Amino acid sequence: MRWPSVVSVVCLVACATPSGGKDSAVPPPIATTCPDAGAPPEVGEGGLRTSGISAAGLVVASGAGDITYVGSHSSGLWRSLRPGTPWRELRTRVMHEYGDLAVDPADGRRIVHSSGGTLERSADAGETWTTLPFGGVSATPQEGTGLVFAVARAPYDPRELWAVTHLGRVGISHDEGDTWVEDPGLPTPPYRDGGGAIRWRVLPPDSPGGAALIAYDHGIWRRDPATGTWSGVLGDPVEGSSMVRDPRDASHILAGAWQSRDDGQTWSRRGGPAFVALSVDAGGTTWAGVDETRLWTSTDGVGFTARQADVGQPLGVAFVGDRLVVTGTAGVATSQDGGVSWVADDTDVVDVGIAIVEADPVCPGVVWAASRCGGGVFVSEDWGRSWTHVDGPHHYVMDLVLPDDPEGTAWIVSDDKLWRGDAALRTFEQVTRGYHYHGFAVDPADPSRLLLGSVGSGQYADTKATIYRSEDAGRTWNATSGYPNTPSSAHAIAWLGPDTVLAGFFKGGTIAHENGHGIGLWRSDDGGRTWHDTGVPARDVASIVHRDGTTWIATEAGLQRSEDDGRSWRVVRVADTLAVAVHGDDVLTLDRDGAVAVSNDGGDSWRVVANGPGGVAASDIAQVAIDAGGAIGWVTLFRYGVWAVPLRP
């Protein structure tokens, strides 16, 4: 089987349990509280792709003619060339981020997009991109023009662009972004830290020499056409994407719960819903807006009627050609009758940032997944056929640890935070915050004893890769000792016994873990207080599994097995191995080149059940898992989807 080119979901694995790191013990008898997941999917050689996790937080819809674009801050920019056709993820400079989009109303192929603060232009509907000389990811509050948060085209000339940065700087271009004139801009930068990107909107003048406006979640600013200076005209919160000018009366502007009848000079509350996004068709005959719960439509921009679109929490809305497009937390829907009836239109619009997947260690068919690009945490109770989002600000998730009791404590390692939660209620609270964390394990003999590994380079970097130890369930932490100063990642941790622990170090750097190399496998015989090098001939240890007296490590030097608590090792599969999962005598691995291999005799013999895209970059994070009942395995590879694979011929 070849992995498909269509982008689906991604996942890492973590068959991690509090009974000792990854897959540390044979699952106990299935609890009666397990949900009825139904029958497992039929999986043949080559694997079966599960349904995708919808791209979280689709905040924007836009387009022109037949071409539609939707954007998500966790899954980037997507395009559909014709109604009802599959969506395609567009490879912008920062693919998983979305800022703003300016589409030429006369030619939907011509777009300008801000991604991660950088402006890019495409003339072929996103096939190729040109970086524009305004803003950029290297800009800081002390230099450059800042990160571009909003961009728009002037209605009287689509080549005239207006852009605004997080520093309040305003750029104007008359040649579609090739050159820029910097406007004096806002006198007081609204944001000094780059925050609030999703709430900005710049509204160009309706005619040459007219007034321009900027909306963000602290108010509205207006540019006086006579003096060219900006002044605050509204000091109340406004969602930037809700500011729209009436095509039939340019002096009539709506923004959130406010409206202006004098071209933005004064504002009054209009009553009715407070919109987070608002759009109007070209003729001004139909308006559509979304608040935090539902969709609203109007024929005059004054009185609005509630509608229902099945997109979860609605976040974005736009008129594209003869269609009304609404986006939300659960996908995309379109309507051709002004919002009365809807058709789901989100096939293949999925969260490409999913980087974690873990099979529940007790309940068959229950799978958890999480994103490393802001989408959050998800749970499926039907073998991956459908997914439910877990509430919480879980951004770049690095690890999930699930309990051997369906109602026990679950753990999430996310960015620079550790979260503890109720596995049944799926509610989480922050336990600690500090650095970029990765490896995590709970002592099976004493669940109050925790080990947490940090990364010594990249964003949120620690002073060095460090393993922290807590004896009070995370209330206090102390750094352990014995390993050298290294910028790598304390990547994988597993308890082998009451005092015996193994820790694997991997590449460091950003969340992609693409810099340098790790320092191999380290051992502690005093419960993680002090560590010493095991001497295993491998630098990058991606995962560790300890189960039923046997220990496994996935390394660039191959999959290695120990039957004496890590004192001696034997390579059982020669391949650059990213991940391993174990269930009884079944062993599942994923190689760097995407090959998926299965052993049914504890690692003595192997067969390849699927082949990936080959040449996987070092930054790609991927793992595997085995269902609690041993029916199927789960395999994921960043940007290529969640797959169920057979464990037996």
How many angstroms separate the termini? 15 Å
Instruction: Specify the CATH architecture of the largest domain.
Output: 7 Propeller
The third-level CATH topology of the largest domain is: Methylamine Dehydrogenase, Chain H
Relevant CATH superfamily of the largest domain:
YVTN repeat-like/Quinoprotein amine dehydrogenase
Shape: elongated
| CATH class category of the largest domain | Mainly Beta
Strand order of the largest sheet: 3-58-57-56
Query: Number of folding domains?
Result: 3
Rounded average pLDDT: 84
What's the layout of helices and strands?
Elements: E1 16-17, E2 21-22, E3 48-49, E4 58-64, E5 67-72, E6 76-80, E7 88-89, E8 100-104, E9 107-115, E10 118-122, E11 130-135, E12 148-154, E13 157-165, E14 170-173, E15 181-183, E16 201-203, E17 212-216, E18 219-223, E19 230-234, E20 244-246, E21 249-255, E22 258-260, E23 268-269, E24 277-280, E25 287-290, E26 295-298, E27 305-307, E28 314-320, E29 323-328, E30 331-335, E31 343-344, E32 354-359, E33 367-371, E34 377-380, E35 388-390, E36 397-401, E37 409-414, E38 417-422, E39 427-433, E40 437-442, E41 450-454, E42 467-470, E43 478-479, E44 489-495, E45 501-506, E46 520-524, E47 532-533, E48 541-547, E49 550-555, E50 558-562, E51 570-573, E52 577-583, E53 586-591, E54 596-599, E55 607-610, E56 624-626, E57 632-637, E58 641-646
Antiparallel strand pairs: 1-2, 3-58, 4-5, 5-6, 6-7, 8-9, 9-10, 10-11, 12-13, 13-14, 14-15, 16-17, 17-18, 18-19, 20-21, 21-22, 22-23, 24-25, 25-26, 26-27, 28-29, 29-30, 30-31, 32-33, 33-34, 34-35, 36-37, 37-38, 38-39, 40-41, 41-42, 42-43, 44-45, 45-46, 46-47, 48-49, 49-50, 50-51, 52-53, 53-54, ...
